[in-house]
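Page 42, continued from yesterday. The earlier attempt failed because a stray header line got pasted into the input along with the sequence. Redoing it now with the clean sequence only.
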Amino acid sequence: MKNVQGNRLQSDQELYMCRLHEIVERSIKEQNLLIQNLSNPPVEASTMGQRISDKVARFGGSWKFIILFISILFVWICFNAIAIQRWRFDPYPFILMNLVLSCIAALQAPIIMMSQNRQEEKDRKESEDDYMINMKAEMQIRSLHEKMDLLEEQQIKTLFDTQAKQFELLAAINKKLDHII
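This time it went through. Structure tokens are written below.
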């Protein structure tokens, strides 16, 4: 009888280890797929125009540009307001300055929009990567839950087996007590 129980206990333990091994293998496969997707992103070669638009947008949105632009406008206005009449190239109301500012704005706006579109693509890709990382964490949590469920199932089974053995021993003790009394 003890040999049968020992064989059953060993087969139960082997089944438990086999199920645990399956959970771990599935978890590792899922994680490897996610890691592969995250660590090998597709390389996008940016064109020269894209690199220029990024640099122009970066410079156009900096304090250096704002200070430089205000300085140039200040010098332009002061020179054309104070200089001798024959040296003035854009007298008040500064029509040439308005034309230059309009041209700069007309060129700078689409360049900044192109750069923003590229940044939006980068942000979208980063968001996808964050989603993949969250999926990996969720899969790890699911795997842990499966392991805990399996462990809990094994513990409950062990408790019931132990309880059954205790009941058998208690019944045997009761029989012996009945014979003695």
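Notes: DSSP finds four helices and no strands in the chain.
Reminder to self: strip header lines before submitting.
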